[in-house]
Amino acid sequence: MTRMIERWFPCAEVSANSRSGWGSGNAEVGLMTWFAKRPTVQAKAAVICSLLPWPDSQAEQARLQELVRLALMGRFVAVKELRAEIEKSNPDGATILDPFSGRGMIPLEGARLGLRAHALDYSPVAVLASRLLTDFPARDWDQEPELPFTLPSDSLIDQHPRLVQDVRSVLQEVGRRHTKVMEPVYPKVDGRRAWGYLWAITMPCQECGNHFPLIGQLELRKPSKRKGKKGQPDFYDVGQSYYIETDAASGTWSVFVHEGAPRGVPTRQVPPGKSRYDSNGRLAVCPFCGYGHNRDVQMRILRTDAAGDEPLLAAELDSQVGKLYRELDPVEIDAVKRAEADLAAETPFGRFLPALPNEAIPAGNTWTVQATVYGATRYGDMMNARQSLSFIRLARTIQEIGDDLTAAGCSKEYVRALTGYAAAAMARKLRRATRGCTLDPKLNKVNDLFATESSLNFSFDYFEVGLADGPGGWDSVSAGSLASLTTIVPPAGTAASCSVARGTATDLPFANRQISAVVTDPPYDAMIDYTDASDLFYVWLKRALASSWPEMGMTAHEHGVQEKTHEIIVKKGGTSNNDHRNRKHYDTLIAQAFAESQRVVRSDGVVTIVFGHGEPEVWQRLLNAIDSAGLVLTGAWPAKTEQGGKTGFSNIVTTLTMCCRPAPANRPAGRKGTVESEIKAEIRRRYPDWERWVLAPADMLMAAAGPAMEVVGRYAEILDAKGQPVDIATFLPLARAAVQEAMSVQIDHQPLETFDARTRFALWWVRLYGRHGQPKSELRWQSLAASLKTEDVRDLVPDIDKGVRFVSARNFKTRVNAASAVIDVALALAAASDEGLAAMGEVLATAGRTVDDTYLWSAVNFLADRLPDGDPDKVAFTRVMRTRGGIASAAETMLATEQQQLIQRTDFDAQLKLL
Question: Which InterPro entries match (predicted)?
């Protein structure tokens, strides 16, 4: 049976719905922190299309396509209709497996259809996230006893399922108890509780010996126009800043907050003549004596006991300006000292877990855990004393509430569910904690620890969130968790509970041919260090869940963090400490994982792989892994799913949803020439459908991988003319070129393929992308498809910030001659257009072109038409076309003048010989 995903996929709908709304997955990811965010619309489409058939009848095809489009209008739309269609084509029952489930976005969609869905992941943190998202929300908890603590009724929440009501109660009880035990070290001032506190790491000056704070910015709140309260006029907020004042006699410093722009300079300064992004970092300038300490000195001091943490000022919530900053009250300074003493007195979690995490940060994590560069060796080193105390007591509160729930008669699974959601909220709160979270004066908030995606930031001046109900506080975080849960709980009786387990994708716990469809989003090479980036959560989660989730703390890793042995990634920076998670490790294990998927999927089922990477070399390795696993690719569908689906320069903007099948037995060997012909024919056959489905040309290029690899999969191996095996990745550029041929692109009535190779490359690039920037990897792909070396066309598509873009005529430096490509002459003409007819005529004459050169003028006309309005080159190419006759006359005049000058020189030389 042919599956829908092998012939059609709702690319446009997936791209559109990935940007915002239900299909973005923003509500689902709000439950628990994890790194890979697969949009729910893509997950839903991949699951549905992997299970639905592709009928022979075009009418039936159209009916099912419309059903899928309808289903992509919401989370729970057309569930019954889809389930009926899936069960009809899967009479033995339909099962879904994701062996790299992460937070569970893909198996969630199978469970929402009421199907048997299985989620598997290697990371205990991911397993917890999957259970909270895919398992517990679909269960019926109505038979559980009442909770042992009561809260005020909430008319909105009380209308929701029991789980939502009780999670609200638990989160509020956690907040109440945690606030009570932390109040002594977060005292109120004038009856108000601070939202948070700005801190700085301090170090002793190597010149004068005075300790001073390392501060990168003095601005606290940017100036802005503010809306007045109801009935009040708008007003202009001048913002707030602060400065450090020193007393050389006593060797002390003080902080002063003031309105407006900063009056002084930070103590961490960009060295003269250097960029703020220079790898040598900023100088630490002593405010007492002005001595500058370079990065090496700073790092050396921070790795010793000489460095410290000092609170600078407090931030309060204000109804007018949002956040109002002030100097610290003496009682707050005393509270910091008390917190240090209280931390030392904290008792362990059980027999083996000390209160402050002592788990060592594994070597080789300087990229992933930036604090290791500045002296942190254990996860307990990443916070100041009061932050650490707060999280110890938060984890202990969650553990105690679990014990109370057990004593009240709640089932073991319900205790696990309720404490799991509380612990997940604690993990989300960690994203606004540690020395990696800085103050954002522009947005008036505290920055995320993962502001640079999957690496944990570090900063010398950082922000500590307090007990008030502000961004990063428990009330704010738990409200977000509850809102997410409320959104995702399925209507009663519609969804099934997903089966979630911890394990490795290289050894699946399923019998042969048991699964209807494996649908997965595997790790992308060196994109994310999953376990290393989530170990901060892990060390705190296992403390909070020590009683209710004892397996969370079970690990064979020598440092007590998550296991790494079978993690299928390429470790960033791993070569520095010879980490085993290298390229060979990744390639070997990803092939084993795909082989396991091939083993467990039914003979009429598919293995669907969602993958995105810009580099041709990574795709080559992926395809080789698919091939070595005994799978053949039968469909590939692009969608803009990353960075909200917006155009950008990241390596991943578009991902492919690829369908594979177990390779047929007894396949013959094939010949390269025959395979190339079959690929071209198959793409010509598919092209009308792509046009009918309104796939953009750039998306067709990526979709071409499907039919190309389907053809390749017909053969056990492919041999060249000399009988040598051909790497299957060789056919990817050929597939892209075949799309170009199938499109029959006309350049002002001239077939594109009749132009010279360099010009063909340039005009095709403009046809696809115009002036829009693209990732550098796209240049490599297009070069391969054009059978050109990248360096041969680098001048046509030069670098811009984080990407490449088609060159502008004024920046094109190549000198033309009689051997120049058409595109070179066209760009030179446009560049000379500002100088007048004579300059353009000189270009035409030098290139040996005429007014009748069909290819030149077709290219010029095409560029004038395709470039966007307002583009200077559009104006230039239009000018060239309008003055075509004058340019030809100027060229003829120039040539005539040169001819006359040559005759005169010849006559002169002849006369000299007669003398």
Answer: SAM-dependent_MTases_sf (IPR029063)
